[in-house]
Specification:
One of its GO terms (biological process) is intracellular protein transport. This protein is about 75% helix and about 0% strand. With about 120 residues, it is mainly alpha-helical.
């Protein structure tokens, strides 16, 4: 799925409106699958094109924002770990801003799902 996802994300970023629309339709179908989360993380970590990494981060945020408390602990840990790693290792400022914003959102989600003792 990872390689086909990268190709779809690249197609989505193309200037051709018809190609973009087709890619968008396929991406909408793909993001319904829970297994897309690890694939998006893989794209954030390994895609050669910075715009693909950035688009993957945006799609990941949209996918899990409403579902964060329902995600398995292992998957939540994976998301946190690789986003932090990406902030550290990616050298592009625009990507840092996107990752930082996503980390802020995930932090708020973690705090809101944490139950404090009375």
């Amino acid at each position: 799925m990872a390689q086909s996802l990268e190709l779809l994300l690249l197609q989505f970023l193309m200037p051709d409106n018809e190609a973009r629309r087709q890619a968008e339709d396929q991406i909408k179908r793909l993001v319904r699958d829970p297994q897309v989360v690890p694939s998006l993380i893989h794209q954030i970590r390994t895609a050669k094109t910075p715009n693909v990494r950035q688009l993957s981060a945006v799609l990941l945020r949209k996918k899990i924002t409403g579902h964060w408390p329902k995600l398995p602990d292992e998957l939540r840990h994976l998301v946190k770990h690789y986003l932090i790693e990406s902030v550290i290792t990616d050298y592009r400022l625009s990507i840092h801003i996107v990752y930082g914003f996503h980390l802020l959102i995930f932090s708020c989600l973690m705090i809101s799902s944490f139950s404090f003792p009375s």
